[in-house]
Amino acid sequence: MPEKISVAGVSVDTRHWIGGERVASGDTFTDSSPIDGSLLGEISRGGPAEADAAVGAAREAFPAWAATPRAERARVLHAVADGVEKRIEELAIVETTDNGALLRSHRRGVMPRVAHNFRFFADWLLTLDHEDFETRGHTNHVSWDPAGPCVLITPWNAPLMLATWKVAPALAAGNTVVLKPAEWSPLTASLLADIAAEAGLPAGVLNVVQGYGSEIGDALTSHPDVRRISFTGSVPTAQRIARSAAANLTPLSLELGGKSPLLVFADADLDLAVDLAVEQYDNAGQVCLAATRILVDESVAEEFTRRFVEKAGRLRQGDPRDESTDIGPTIHPRQLEKIDGFVRRAIAAGARAVVGGHRGNGQYYAPTLLTDVAQDSEIVQEEVFGPVLTLQTFADEDEAVRLANDTRFGLAATVATGDTERAGRVTARLVAGTVWVNCFFVRDLQAPFGGSRQSGVGREGGTWSFDFYCDLKNTVTAPKGWNDNHG
Prior knowledge:
The chain is of the alpha/beta class. The protein has 16 helices and 22 strands. The chain has helices at 48-67, 70-86, 88-99, 103-127, 159-172, 187-198, 213-221, 235-246, 270-278, 301-312, 333-348, 378-381, 397-405, 420-429, 462-469, 482-486, and strands spanning 4-7, 10-13, 16-18, 21-23, 28-32, 39-44, 133-135, 138-146, 150-153, 177-180, 206-208, 228-232, 252-255, 261-264, 293-297, 352-355, 368-371, 388-394, 412-416, 434-437, 456-457, 470-477. The strands form six sheets. The chain has a seven-stranded mixed beta sheet, sandwiched between helices. Helix 2 packs antiparallel against helix 4 (103-127), helix 3 (88-99) packs across helix 4 and helix 4 (103-127) runs parallel beside helix 5.
């Protein structure tokens, strides 16, 4: 197996990164581009041995990194951000080739955000403090102590951005990390290891291991030396991770996707509402936050649908490396089959495709809008994770909220209305970790992020990230002379 492959002219190491060294496995798995199905390379396929070695390296490196002063940790993370910014073009083209998302988005938004993730948490670390408070003359001092080795398991739809959303706060908090990227899009995690090493991150502080699902995942999540586990992905995988972590009572942060609604009221700016709805096709619909259930006031549903069909019809689907492309491919043949199965079953059950409803060439699925769907149907209740939206109508505000909340998920919601009082009433009643009003996907790293119900456990972002990645300690100090009176 070659140790390095060339992806669009960029050299990428296919081996694990453990303890500051490249480590090969005897077995491999194939990585192919969703753009055209071409083989990118054979990737080292880790298992229990690699998992144990990576956790061992993280355990060994932890004491020194935890003891590193905050300012020095922040300096190293800023150096990592510098390295990302120097290689934005390389990272962008490799990730587009590996997972099929738009190259223009990677260049202009995603990879700059990767650098920002490191800078934000480096700076937030330096401001992290809690004002001391008194209890009957005793002083309480709260501190954020590094927890230990962290296992971070990340998805394929935004590989590097979501990885660094976890890696940056974990490292800033003084922890060491074992990163396990998704097997369908592992390449930019390998480049991140190179960048971190060049930035001066000590050996063993960041480790990257590759492998297929439970083959390596179970060994990582059940390891007794792991102190935190953060996972983004599906509910069934999260349930398996929770069972695996239970033996050691390892704290978990789980972000598990959803079936988010977009509520369009009659007083909404319909052009804005249509723009928000069509935006849900971003990344070929492979976005956990996507508002895939469009709920429209029945009095404006016909006009909304007409405008939606017109605007969606102007979308260009094709090679994500082309500047004019709006929608790229789905990540993998298995995902394409899953999406197509959802749509075929929905149509068989009575749904009508007013947009799309069919496969394209290769791994492309046409942007789809289904109407005439029942609230209890599979297509309304289950996450498709593809460019498939449903449209339902409601008669009043109460019905809109009832339909919006009537799934097992609760990750996000979007509301389109021109009435600020209505916006306040509705958002207060929605079950969601994030609610957008007349906007979508506006994310600030200082805000809490996570889901309700089966969309996840816990919150990350700003101080919430440090609350998770640290052991909070309260030190209570008696006033001077207190023992003289209580001896």
